[in-house]
Design goal:
The chain is an alpha/beta fold and 383 residues long. The protein is 34% helix and 20% strand. Helix 4 packs parallel to helix 13. The structure holds S-adenosylmethionine (SAM). Keywords: Methyltransferase, mRNA capping, mRNA processing, Nucleus, RNA-binding, S-adenosyl-L-methionine, Transferase.
Length: 383
């Protein structure tokens, strides 16, 4: 686990030179903003001129839900399963911690719930109450009908959690005012692959954080997954253009060398599922802002580190198999790898040879390059 306060990237050379308030800023020594001096500290340049939330909502609203049959044909089938495994392990472990601390009536806020990709995880985790919120109205509708379906099809003696569904821009609207039960307090707020959309401005990032944390019980957790800004900047700086990526994803920046704390936009495109503007989340700033809500960072780990640690446990390995989070290489006779290029599996081939194994679980090189952009975080509300 990375120590709190330790700057990721310093170890692996990912942090560009500088040390000012911009990632890789070449000069200037702006400090990290304090509460109450938002205006003074908002970077004067690179102010967003468009409200990107509208674009983001319309993109996710248009995304079609496809069944397993179609999904399994996708070039990124295993990577999506791998991401889902990361979320499952994280959610499972946090629910265990919450229960271990004595919570019997578990309430969860799924911030940026999308089409309800995590509903089954909440069901498996046996929670009591779920609030789902997302900016994309169509996604929220689909999430709700998925939940109704799940309830309808459940066995008589299984008690499914109760749920509320809210369509809201969680980076500009106050969620607590929309709760059916105004007294509701959450054990966990889960924000999976969402928080980076709010880093368009300090005000938006702060509102998202407020929504995530203000109704957490003392000891409760704000958990999530988001791209690692250091990793993105490292790859950008290593590229001889303003873009980098491979056959499945592409990240395009507008400039490089200087990276404002907020509103540092890049365009992210991932194989038919994501095609939207996103913003760098400079983690030390998020950590600092979270203190306003009495939140302490307890875990920040790149997907690679998280995976390496979790696969040591048999239960997580079993879940990995069950969720098909890795692709078998070489595939069974008559089967097909996700990519036909042998170069995409040279690492797996090498491992088979080195360890004398017939088959290994892996991700194709391109999928791993995309998955390894992300990190897992956990904040805890102080008593
Ligand atoms: C990559 S999807 C992740 C969905 C879901 N959390 C998951 O892991 O399957 C990102 C989601 O964030 C939502 N989102 C983006 N900006 C938001 C905002 N300002 N308020 C609420 N939801 C937002 C999008 O509509 C989309 O559903």
């Amino acid at each position: 686990m990375e120590k709190v306060g330790e700057k990721q990237g310093e170890e692996d050379g990912a942090a560009p030179a500088g040390g000012g308030s911009e990632l890789g800023q070449k000069s200037g020594t702006k400090r990290v903003p304090e509460r109450g001096d938002d205006e003074e500290e908002t970077p004067p340049t690179k102010k967003p001129v468009t409200d990107h939330s509208v674009k983001v909502a319309s993109h996710y609203n248009k995304l079609q839900e496809v069944g397993l049959e179609v999904r399994s044909q996708s070039r990124i089938f295993y990577m999506r399963n791998f991401n889902n495994w990361v979320k499952s392990v994280l959610i499972g472990e946090m629910l265990e911690r919450v229960r271990g601390a004595g919570s019997r009536n578990v309430s969860v806020l799924d911030l940026g719930c999308g089409k309800g990709g995590d509903l089954l995880k909440w069901r498996r985790g046996g929670i009591n109450r779920l609030v789902c919120a997302d900016i994309a109205a169509v996604s929220v509708e689909q999430c709700q009908s998925r939940y109704e379906d799940m309830k309808r099809k459940s066995y008589n003696n299984e008690k499914i959690f109760s749920a509320q569904f809210i369509t809201a821009d969680c980076s500009t609207e106050v969620l607590s005012e929309k709760l059916d039960d105004p007294q509701l307090m959450f054990d966990i707020c889960s924000c999976q692959f969402v928080y980076h959309y709010s880093f368009e401005s300090e005000q938006k990032a702060d509102m998202m954080l407020r929504n995530a944390c203000e109704r957490l019980k003392p000891g409760g957790f704000f958990i999530g997954t988001t791209p690692d800004a250091y990793e993105l900047v490292k790859r950008l700086e290593a590229s001889d253009s303003l873009t980098f990526g491979n056959e499945i994803f592409k990240v395009s920046f507008q400039s490089k060398g200087s990276y404002p704390l907020f509103g540092c936009q890049y365009h992210f495109n991932l194989e038919g599922v994501v095609d939207v503007p996103e913003f760098l989340v400079y983690f030390p700033v998020l950590e600092h802002m979270a203190k306003r809500y009495n939140m302490r960072l307890v875990l920040k780990q790149r997907f690679s580190e998280f995976c390496e640690e979790k696969v040591k446990k048999e239960q997580h390995r079993n879940l990995m198999m069950k969720m098909m989070a890795l692709e078998l290489f070489p595939c069974e006779v008559g089967g097909r790898q996700a990519s036909e290029s042998t170069e995409e599996y040279s690492h797996a081939k090498e491992r088979c040879c080195r360890a004398g194994l017939r088959q290994v679980g892996t991700l194709s090189r391109s999928e791993w390059e995309a998955a390894s952009i992300y990190l897992v975080f956990v904040f805890q509300k102080m008593a």
